[in-house]
Amino acid sequence: MKSVDFCLTLKKHGFNFFIGVPCSILKNIINCLQVDPDVPYVSATREDEAIGIATGAFLGGQKPVVLMQNSGLGNSIGALASLPLLYKIPMLLLISWRGYQGKDAPEHLIMGKNTIKLLKDVGIPTQILSKKKTEKAISTAVNVMEEQQVPVAIVIKREVVS
Amino acid sequence: MKRCEAIETIANVLKGDELVITANGMISREMCAIKDETNNFYMLGSMGLASSIGLGLALSLPKKTIIVIDGDGNILMNMGSLATIGDLAPKNMVHIVLDNESCDSTGGQPTASRTVKLENVAKAAGFEITEKIHDDKALEKRMKHVLSLSGPSFVLVKIERGGKEVPRVPYETETIKTRFKNSIH
Predict the structure, then answer these.
(1) What is the pTM (predicted TM-score) of this model?
(2) For position B162, what pLDDT does the model report?
(3) A64 vs B56: CB contact, 8 Å cut-off?
């Protein structure tokens, strides 16, 4: 799926408030959102800050999405555990997967190896995005968010969204 | 001025229709003990993120006034938040920092705010209004003034270390969330 269609699909499912920290894998999605006049995109300084802003947006009646690189998941674990997981605040986490299968720059390898495990260990329902089932992944995420009132992750490998 | 005095003064100048976020530790506990309201969101963990929650609310609800009652240790953990708020400049946000130059909830360890001028950081970041307040009477007067202006506003309140013996916030986190959300009209 193309980034522009991916963003349209997110909006079609009711997501209307976006907060992110840039990543090269997510750059086309973020670039689409930044120029979209219909939805706000807040550029956060850190990923845990983004989790805080998303929490406020949810309390204010919005349906938020946080975009981050998996390296930033490390920055966010404490915030996720003691804010949206603790208070039952639903939000969609779009997390890029640097270091997938150990093929990446050295700084991404340890987080790359542990990204899915970390998400599972803190109790965040997680899907890995595939090219053919993009819309299904988003609708599944929405259902889980609504049923469980928790943050839900979709992990995105390079070139899955073009 | 003691922290509980500052919190009581702030709580008393509010009109009641604001949305209030209180930072984790003694600030949430004292606020809950002094003036428990359904439109208070007591942050229990996620240290540093009170102003970020406030920003998300301020951008989502531009007609509501958002009051963040933060601490110096808290904002020093998330200084980037001042930049994000300054950049987006929500007019409806008042960011109060109760500054005892220490992490008092964890034993009074000194923080960098003993030398760093947080009000100048906020000003450089682009806050429309910045105030630095030392005594209770000035706090009441300046808070009323700040509430009449367009923000974002940053109010640094110098307080003493130490506080009341107050219990933990007695509510389940889901209750805090639900009653806060339901208080918004």
Answers:
(1) 0.97
(2) 87
(3) yes
